[in-house]
């Protein structure tokens, strides 16, 4: 049985991947399964926290004892996270948020036209939710955690990203064709704004989640 070291705390976790619609039947999306975010939500609940899980397009069942808010797009994820973060002690952004969305949404299904090239897809930037909640904390002392998937120069790029985002902790994963996405396992380094570096050996996503909560709980004390 886990230590109830998050008892009395409210934590917000985002999970899954946003989908940015082009028309009623098509979207731009990513390969995030939501498993890491769900592991974070389950382990926080087991440690006594009240948990709000903001889930983007995951096919996973609601974890027991967790408030689940289901959303689709990055803008919807932003609204849900900002609302839940108002009284949160910690926010963990495990969701893969689309950096861009189509500039226009076609109310009817986009059709191919005989003898005509397709229209290009024009993209606009989505808000960076992690940077926004870090710069403008809903509460003093709120602990904010981001995730970063990097393919090369993992530590150096992670450090830069941590600074750019302004969060307290950044979980850096190395990703590739067969790594991390959809998998049951993970391997990561958790970088702290205080200069700390916590390696998490290859193992179940639960183990990484427990390490994240250890680091969060220490910062909340
Ligand atoms: O910049 P990058 O997408 O690599 O950063 C990843 C981290 O930032 C994740 O924690 C993700 O949830 C968050 N993010 C966000 N809003 C975005 C893009 C990413 O909050 N528009």
Automatic annotation (TrEMBL):
GO BP term, example: coenzyme A biosynthetic process
GO cellular component: phosphopantothenoylcysteine decarboxylase complex
Binding site for CTP: 99, 109, 127-130, 147, 161, 165
Domain of life the protein comes from: Bacteria
Keywords: Decarboxylase, Flavoprotein, FMN, Ligase, Lyase, Magnesium, Metal-binding, Multifunctional enzyme
Molecular function in Gene Ontology: FMN binding; metal ion binding; phosphopantothenate--cysteine ligase activity; phosphopantothenoylcysteine decarboxylase activity
Location of region: Phosphopantothenate--cysteine ligase: 11-221
Reactions it catalyzes: N-[(R)-4-phosphopantothenoyl]-L-cysteine + H(+) = (R)-4'-phosphopantetheine + CO2; (R)-4'-phosphopantothenate + L-cysteine + CTP = N-[(R)-4-phosphopantothenoyl]-L-cysteine + CMP + diphosphate + H(+)
Biological pathway: Cofactor biosynthesis; coenzyme A biosynthesis; CoA from (R)-pantothenate: step 3/5; Cofactor biosynthesis; coenzyme A biosynthesis; CoA from (R)-pantothenate: step 2/5
Cofactor note: Binds 1 FMN per subunit.
DNA/pantothenate metabolism flavoprotein C-terminal domain location: 6-217
Required cofactor names: Mg(2+); FMN
EC number(s) given by UniProt: 4.1.1.36, 6.3.2.5
Function: Catalyzes two steps in the biosynthesis of coenzyme A. In the first step cysteine is conjugated to 4'-phosphopantothenate to form 4-phosphopantothenoylcysteine, in the latter compound is decarboxylated to form 4'-phosphopantotheine. Catalyzes two sequential steps in the biosynthesis of coenzyme A. In the first step cysteine is conjugated to 4'-phosphopantothenate to form 4-phosphopantothenoylcysteine. In the second step the latter compound is decarboxylated to form 4'-phosphopantotheine.
Similarity annotation: In the C-terminal section; belongs to the PPC synthetase family.
Protein name (database record): Coenzyme A biosynthesis bifunctional protein CoaBC
Originating species: Streptomyces curacoi
Biological classification of the source: Bacteria, Bacillati, Actinomycetota, Actinomycetes, Kitasatosporales
């Amino acid at each position: 049985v886990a230590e109830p070291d998050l008892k009395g705390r409210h934590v917000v976790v985002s999970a899954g991947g946003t989908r940015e619609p082009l028309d009623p039947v098509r979207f731009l999306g990513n390969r995030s399964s939501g498993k890491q975010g769900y592991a974070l939500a389950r382990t926080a609940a087991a440690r006594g926290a009240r948990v709000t899980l903001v889930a983007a397009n995951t096919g996973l069942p609601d974890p027991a004892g967790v408030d689940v808010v289901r959303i689709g797009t990055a803008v919807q994820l932003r609204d849900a996270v900002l609302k839940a973060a108002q009284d949160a002690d910690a926010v963990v952004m495990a969701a893969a948020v689309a950096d861009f969305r189509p500039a226009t949404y076609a109310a009817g299904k986009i059709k191919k036209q005989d003898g005509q090239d397709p229209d290009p897809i024009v993209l606009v930037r989505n808000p960076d939710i992690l940077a926004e909640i870090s710069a403008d904390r809903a509460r003093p002392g709120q602990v904010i955690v981001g995730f970063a998937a990097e393919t090369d120069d993992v530590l150096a790029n992670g450090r830069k990203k941590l600074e750019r985002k302004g969060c307290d902790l950044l979980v850096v994963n190395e990703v590739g064709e067969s790594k991390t996405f959809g998998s049951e396992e993970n391997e990561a380094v958790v970088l702290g704004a205080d200069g700390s570096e916590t390696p998490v050996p290859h193992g179940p996503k639960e183990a990484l989640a427990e390490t994240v909560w250890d680091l969060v709980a220490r910062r909340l004390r």
